[in-house]
Amino acid sequence: MSQQKVDQYKKEKANRKQIMKKQRIMGVARTCAVVVVALALVGWLGFSAYDSYTSNQERPTAEVNYDAVTNYMSGLSE
User: Fold this and answer.
1) Is residue 75 classed as helix, strand or coil in its secondary structure?
2) How far is residue 32's CA from residue 25's CA, in Å, rounded to a whole number?
3) d(C-alpha 42, C-alpha 48), whole Å
């Protein structure tokens, strides 16, 4: 081995714990980012499916008789 390679190996060996810790932290951060993106995608797909399902359902309608209100309002204006 050349002296340069030996020096580089010694430097890496001296900082091996720090390098391993940094790699572990980056791995956990990457995993967390993937999980967050996956959860957002699943949530969005679920919401879209629910929204399209509910938009195809028939909505109940109600009729309101406003005769009493109309009579009351006309009684006030007299």
Assistant:
1) helix
2) 11
3) 10
The SS3 assignment for 52 reads: helix
Q: State how far Cα 17 lies from the chain centre.
A: 35
Q: What is the DSSP code string of 10-31?
A: HHHHHTHHHHHHHHHHHHHHHH
**Which amino acid would we find at residue 44?**
W
Encode pLDDT of 35-70 as tens digits. 999 999 999 999 999 999 888 888 888 888 888 888
Whether the CB-CB separation of 30 and 37 falls below 8 Å is answered with no
Q: Is the pTM of this model over 0.70?
A: no
Give residue 46's identity as a one-letter amino acid code. G
Per-residue pLDDT tens for 52-61? 988 888 888 8
